[in-house]
Amino acid sequence: MTSNTRWNVVALVVVLATVIALIMPSHFATAFDVSRMTPVADRNIRTGNKMLIEKEIIEERQVVSENDSNSTQAEVALDEDMSFLDEDDGDSDDGVLDVNEIPVRYDEAQLWRVYNISNAMSRRNMLPLGDILESKYGGTIWKENSKFLDVSIDKKHVKAARAFLEDHNLNTEVLNYNIQEMIDNEAAVGANLTQSEAGQRTKKAARSGIHWKDYHDLDTIYAFMREIRGKFPNICRLYTIGKTAEGRDLKVLSISENLTANKKIWIDGGIHAREWVSPATVTYIINQLLTNWEKQPSYIRNKSWYIMPVMNPDGYMYSRRSNRLWRKNRKPHKTSSCVGVDLNRNFNIGWGTVGSSKNPCHETYHGTSANSELETQAVVNYIKSIKANLEAYLTYHSYSQALVYPYGYKSAKSKYATALQRVGKEAARLIKNKTGKTYDVGVTYKVLSLAAGGSDDWSCSVMGIKYVYTIELRDRGQYGFILPPAQIEGTASEGLILAQQVAKDIS
Ligand SMILES: [Zn+2]
């Protein structure tokens, strides 16, 4: 071999190695790696969290039960889940398994949009038609507003339900002919991704393995929150603010350089179990805020962010394991065999009036009293405890593509409606520029419908918070709750824009 040939071989090897190095990460690195995020320097940060970690571990076991009796405790509520220090791989079983869980299937169940429901039904309250479709025709209500009602109907009821709607001159469009197929397609994307991640995860088991190309179980979301807390100990804290009926933790992550002095923004997701893109969007927001935190604009950095990706963990896990279209929590009812309360009808604002049901079998069952649910209680107590400087309450739902502000429990507007409309419009304009998607902006009772007991109205009316928005993420009904994983990142980026615009307007 001449030296020239040898050099050619060396050059070829170098080129090949470079090409492989360039291809490999993009091919295999679907899992997001928190350890690669830029840490935040300690200067000017006054949370003193590094020292607090030790303190939290010691005090954690004593504190949680005291939170509700003394609301100020929540500010120093101590994370009881510091297992990132024990190199918890985040893969542990969820812990709460019901052997009776048999997955509900929707083979050839159809998704319908029923128009002009007020023509045939009571004008004051849309619920009767939904009630009838639920109780007599095995329907599951997906969405109802002043213009239409989306409902899925089991295969065996399709004929009878169609006849019923025709009898009442209700114009109906079929949005989808096989809901199970949509669910299976959604799951297939996840299965492929999981395989490509498998090799990676064995290397460094401490990773949550979160990414935004698929939806994740609660374990992964909570492991991600712990990872973030561990990666940014000087600006992040993790709180367990309560437990669910099935014993799962309710977790809130805070991000702040000065928790109490800064103006605060609360973000929550996953009040409704089946709206999977909501927790995905909220975790995406956490990730985006902390990616290059030090390069974020001052209006982001000078806020205290309190973020709760999953307000309804029991319902969420039930929707992942057993019934993709589950909405409520999983609290058993004393006298009915039907399970669960609609948490977004359980807050103490106009409770039990419009747009909610007293029937435990219905999707919008409001519970036995306002704040009857552990999840509602935990959030109410916690928000009360951080009330000082709390300027914004943002709650993420799907679907509709709408940015709405109070009220929904009565036909009236928040006293901040002018600002809310302006900021909402600006967010919608930026979303349109970025992804091309159109979001409607307006007051809840007009854009969506009248519905009492919502967390947004409570935040506005009872807590007096100025920037209160509900964002209904994608889509407009093509897939509804079963939004394909390929749309998560785009949708989440739309959700982020709302948070950014609100932060900007506060400063
Ligand atoms: Zn919702």
Automatic annotation (TrEMBL):
Main location group: secreted
Residues annotated as catalytic: 472
Annotated Gene3D superfamilies: Metallocarboxypeptidase-like (3.30.70.340), Zn peptidases (3.40.630.10)
Domain Peptidase M14 positions: 214-506
Example of a GO MF term: zinc ion binding
A Pfam entry, by short name: Peptidase_M14
Subcellular location: Secreted
GO BP annotation list: proteolysis
UniProt cross-references to SUPFAM superfamilies, sorted A to Z: Protease propeptides/inhibitors (SSF54897), Zn-dependent exopeptidases (SSF53187)
Gene Ontology CC annotation, any one: extracellular space
Keyword entries, A-Z: Carboxypeptidase, Disulfide bond, Hydrolase, Metal-binding, Metalloprotease, Protease, Secreted, Signal, Zinc
Cofactor dependency: Zn(2+)
Function recorded in the entry: Involved in the digestion of the blood meal.
Similarity-based family: Belongs to the peptidase M14 family.
Name under which the protein is recorded: Peptidase M14 domain-containing protein
